[in-house]
């Protein structure tokens, strides 16, 4: 049986979860803000600290916040749809207007295209927009039906992901490899050179999204809707589901860690597939504990809630800051930084984002990009 939350009430839990998501995603994206195609270049013999951080990431970071955001996006769509239905019922109109939500998704796709081409090709907005259009088709299903659809969509997405992951890759990308030396001047060269690489990666995204990400993202959004209808975003998970998530996270993340440091390209490819599954389980654990700590109170986890309210603006700002730092201000860091260096940058910038969000919201009610997005939707709906 579905248990709807009130769509008119702002859920502090959602803002706090969104805050964790936007801070957490930078810990992964930072590796790709130098070389956006290959990301971090490991040493041929990895330092102990690199291995430790890699294992830590496999358990707590890798893919977790992408999944978290996708679920939250589904929740946001459902809440807005419920609000529309309430306003239409009040006006005695039997046909809900869906064009506002679809227009939000269309504009998100536009933002994603601009972001991917001109700023950072590791964009998530475009797949969220496309996946959202697919998920929206099933928004009226009950929680059980949404869960079934979510499972099928996620399963279907993993088939091509597995096939792509298992394609042999004979290119060696390490700190001392010819490929690393060949790639680096392009990413720290002129903006025109970088733009060509962005366009190449964008073309690749256009091929991959319909086969994989669209279905995976839509599945996560449907999962988020189902959990919202069951009040998980207020009460957290039940004990049985929580322990199931803990079990699968530990099992899959352990396998992922063993395979990812094996040095065998085929085993490392399999580990990439396991990340997608363990990420969903760990994201659910994050949701549970944030809900328990926040208790839907505006006075708890306030700093995270502030970041969550500015998630769109801060996400784009992360890309701008990361690109400027690693390609223009300190490009030599791409030669010298180990994982602990990237982790340090992410921690420092996370603290700055917490402070920036708090200061900004003292004078303004919403972020600049949030305001722009809402205005564009309002004018075109």
From TrEMBL:
Could you tell me the superkingdom of the organism this chain comes from? Bacteria
User: Per its UniProt record, what Pfam families does this chain match?
Assistant: DUF418 (PF04235)
Q: Which InterPro entries match?
A: Bact_Transport_Assoc (IPR052529), DUF418 (IPR007349)
- Keyword set for this entry? Membrane, Transmembrane, Transmembrane helix
KW Membrane (keyword) present: yes
DUF418 domain mapped to chain residues: 227-378
Q: Where does the sequence pass through the membrane?
A: 20-41, 53-79, 105-130, 201-228, 240-261, 273-291, 312-330, 342-361
Q: What is this protein called?
A: DUF418 domain-containing protein
